[in-house]
Amino acid sequence: MNARTGLTELVESWGYRTECAADGAEGFEKILQWSPAIVVTDLMMPRMDGMELLSRIMELPQRVSVVMLTAQGSIESAVEAMRMGAYDYIPKPVEPVRLKTILQNAIRQREADVELEVTRRQLRDTGVLGPLVGNSQEMKAIFSLIERVAPSNVSVLVTGESGTGKELVARALHDLSSRRNKPFVAVNCAAIPETLIESEIFGHEKGAFTGAVERRAGCFELAEEGTLLLDEIGEMPAATQAKLLRVLEDRKLRRLGSKVETPVDVRVVAATNKNPQEAVANGELRGDLFYRLNVFNIQMPPLRAHRDDVKPIAEKMIDLMNERHHCTVSGMTDALLTRLTAYAWPGNVRELRNTIERATILAGSGLLGTEHLPPHFGEPGFAPAAHGGSQRAGHYAATQQLYSDDNAVRVQVGTTVDEAEKQLILRTLLSTHNNKTKAAEILGISSKTLQNKLKEYNATTSGTE
């Protein structure tokens, strides 16, 4: 009683109109009578507990943001509540600063609902959701997931092959949330040296290590009140993963070399091109971190699985490239569209973008045609170059006849295991534009093992490490 009264008075002191109830049943009656914007409820209550109250609130026609109060040891229940639609949760005893921030964010979310409905109408009419494009059932399902989860504060794990648009999903989640006017910060965990990744993400104090000549804010602080994308989360070192988990649970971080914890209010989106369950089984991703990040999962399909979207994506790319390169391309021929739709796109949307960019620059104006495609486009053994050109991969002649539109490796009966392994490795290198780091990830081997294999094959590749 005293705790409930004290919390009510605290919230009223911030300028909110409040009502209080002794349990979930009384609270639901008041919700029906009063239609509040926000409900702050305990998890454990007599007559009707917090989970049942949340379930009933989610069935109401009006939108109500639910904030769950949890005791120590009830974090799993809180995460389950967020899966059911709760806006956020806060451990007891309640920290006033954190509660105030959550309430402010919930109000901003309510104000964003009108704009979100406009965006939904645009999506239904045009097949466009922010930077994402698609009219296929696969993409419509992705759009629906984004719409559902964007207004909440839950962590999201975006999975899928390289080049499928995982960062675009993160940006769409940010743009459709109440945080859209705050920073969006993206960091590639695989691109940062292991010795620097903690400093990059969490920041450091002056003198924390050799070369730390001044205090530096990390990505969490740079994304304050906004969204932080942690791309290729499976490449994050285990020690950093443990520290990240604590920040996600406590909403506080400690810069390297600091004795003081700093509160943070950041929505985290993580992305990986690995199978997360396999990454957990292999020890590459902590199971508890995966559980905390995977409150909501969005699996991006490869472009070959929704080829009907090649046309609208290509058309949008043409508009973007016209603006970027000052061209006046008006569209593409039917012959070009047929070639683009038939291709398997091992590099997914990223490869399509590079192909359209090259074609737009070559054409300059008029219609894009098949003559603007890279040489040997779509033929067996075709390997798109990193900068939009193409090449015949001389070392990979043995694998050229094995390539199909499904980007498969076909091994004839009688082929030795060693030769089949060689063909698989070299074919995978082709599909990743000769990027050995990506190829090693897809093959499920270490970069060192891949390098040793290439030395055995006497291959003289020159791709990205």
From TrEMBL:
The modification 4-aspartylphosphate is found at residue 42. Residues 132-361 form the Sigma-54 factor interaction domain. One of its GO terms (biological process) is phosphorelay signal transduction system. Keywords: ATP-binding, DNA-binding, Nucleotide-binding, Phosphoprotein, Transcription, Transcription regulation. The lineage of its organism: Bacteria, Pseudomonadati, Acidobacteriota, Terriglobia, Terriglobales. CDD domains: AAA. Pfam families: AAA_lid_14, HTH_8, Response_reg, Sigma54_activat. Residues 1-107 form the Response regulatory domain. GO terms for molecular function: ATP binding; sequence-specific DNA binding. This is DNA-binding NtrC family response regulator. It comes from Granulicella arctica.
